[in-house]
Design a protein that fits this description.
The chain has 132 residues and is mainly alpha-helical. The chain is built from four helices and two strands; from the N terminus they run βααβαα. Strands 1-2 form a two-stranded antiparallel sheet. Helix 1 runs antiparallel to helix 2, helix 2 runs parallel beside helix 4 and helix 3 runs antiparallel to helix 4.
Amino acid sequence: MRLKKWMILVGYMCLFLGFGYSSYSIFADETGSNLWVLWGIAFLVMGYQVINFLINKKNDKWNDSYVVADQRVFRKILISLSLSYVFMLIFLLVGAIGFYHDFTSGYNILVGAIISSLLVFMVSQIVQGLVN
């Protein structure tokens, strides 16, 4: 798949700002939820992705297109998706046990599983980029 550099940067910036807004809005809500920490971590990871993208592509023109996904990248994405899927299943299992014993609510379990699996996926992508 080939995409323009500015299209990818706009996507990264939208995710970066969305995670930042979610983190701040949950923090300012004052309901006692600590979910803003996970959104904040996702915000920082996306900030790293934006800076890393700008550093790696600084000599390219903004309208240059390049291959976003080839066979090697697709394999890395599959590995990261499988890790995040396993992590989400473990999180949901622990959350279901906690829900059964009235430790937490079902909404917190689902939101926590989704956000933490996204974080595992992003961290796995970063680690695989550093290793290879």
